[in-house]
Amino acid sequence: MGTFITAILVFGLLVIFHELGHFIAAKLAGVKVHEFAVGMGPRFLKIKGKETEYSLRILPIGGYVKMEGEDESSEDERSFGNKPLWARMSVIVAGPLMNFILAVLLFIIIFYAIGFPTTKISQVTPGLPAEAAGIEAGDQILRIDGKTIDSWDEIVQIINSSNNRLLHIALISPKGEEKEVQVQPVMKAGMKQAVIGISPVIEKSFPRSVKASFNRTIFVMQGMLDFLGNLFRGKASAEDVVGPVGIIHLVGEAAKVSIFSVLSFAALISINLGIVNLLPIPALDGGRLLFLIFEGISGKPVNPEREGFIHLVGFILLMMLMIFIVYKDINRFDLF
């Protein structure tokens, strides 16, 4: 039950942010919004606003923002179809964009809560080379083999690539005294990793958390795009694709580790959701964007009813694909 509730919260967060992007952009563009829905299927809760109805639906697998004139002809001046092309495109793109923003926010929470390792040493492990060389807790590493050190990652990288050769390390003590030592890394028992026996001081930095969050989001986006490219070229396996059931299982596994694992997994899903929604497939944001691009090139819009029918067919096919993926997830994770 705990896994299911956690998964619902994760799905809900992703859907709310995605649809909130469409909703805010639509309101800013002056589009009339009839409904802001979280979930699919029958409605079990609704709140009527001045113009928009806010609703929760039974199936937690998506959501939507219902706008005037989005899939049908409308003479209303505030209809989606009567807005400038740039405004309509911004409304469509805003959903996936909010997924990327959500990922950045989640990563900021994680990085700030956990903190960053610094170049200052908090602990020296007894019996390992650092202790024998005279390195002490409180020392800060300035240079290794003449190279100025700016981060803990650099220290780890240099030690791991040392091939057990002697390293010349320059440090500064808590009293401000510089010293140089020679340390020969050793291989960590049971792992292919070289160590000298030091642990870093952890500090929290909001600016560094923000920078790291943007870098992590871009890194994950690049990985996702590489995977999709390999998938279309037949160089990746569709077995790596999971659906809602698989995600619920993986959320449960992440919840067993820590709340930060859940947040990190939610950020990954949010990025994937944003990218997948931008694919040029009918019923997805990318499919709608494709029609708008065609309109910009041809100078005339596609008939709204015809476009709506294409999106409906695309939605049905996506639901059939979803059912197939759910079946694969159940067998893969041996859930029943």
UniProtKB/TrEMBL annotation:
<comment type="similarity">
    <text>Belongs to the peptidase M50B family.</text>
</comment>
<protein>
    <recommendedName>
        <fullName>Zinc metalloprotease</fullName>
        <ecNumber>3.4.24.-</ecNumber>
    </recommendedName>
</protein>
<feature type="transmembrane region" description="Helical">
    <location>
        <begin position="257"/>
        <end position="279"/>
    </location>
</feature>
<keyword id="KW-0812">Transmembrane</keyword>
<keyword id="KW-0378">Hydrolase</keyword>
<keyword id="KW-0862">Zinc</keyword>
<dbReference type="Pfam" id="PF17820">
    <property type="entry name" value="PDZ_6"/>
</dbReference>
<feature type="transmembrane region" description="Helical">
    <location>
        <begin position="308"/>
        <end position="327"/>
    </location>
</feature>
<dbReference type="Pfam" id="PF02163">
    <property type="entry name" value="Peptidase_M50"/>
</dbReference>
<dbReference type="InterPro" id="IPR041489">
    <property type="entry name" value="PDZ_6"/>
</dbReference>
<keyword id="KW-0645">Protease</keyword>
<feature type="domain" description="PDZ">
    <location>
        <begin position="121"/>
        <end position="166"/>
    </location>
</feature>
<feature type="transmembrane region" description="Helical">
    <location>
        <begin position="91"/>
        <end position="114"/>
    </location>
</feature>
<dbReference type="GO" id="GO:0016020">
    <property type="term" value="C:membrane"/>
</dbReference>
<keyword id="KW-1133">Transmembrane helix</keyword>
<dbReference type="InterPro" id="IPR001478">
    <property type="entry name" value="PDZ"/>
</dbReference>
<dbReference type="InterPro" id="IPR004387">
    <property type="entry name" value="Pept_M50_Zn"/>
</dbReference>
<dbReference type="InterPro" id="IPR008915">
    <property type="entry name" value="Peptidase_M50"/>
</dbReference>
<keyword id="KW-0472">Membrane</keyword>
<dbReference type="GO" id="GO:0046872">
    <property type="term" value="F:metal ion binding"/>
</dbReference>
<dbReference type="GO" id="GO:0006508">
    <property type="term" value="P:proteolysis"/>
</dbReference>
<keyword id="KW-0482">Metalloprotease</keyword>
<keyword id="KW-0479">Metal-binding</keyword>
<dbReference type="InterPro" id="IPR036034">
    <property type="entry name" value="PDZ_sf"/>
</dbReference>
<dbReference type="GO" id="GO:0004222">
    <property type="term" value="F:metalloendopeptidase activity"/>
</dbReference>
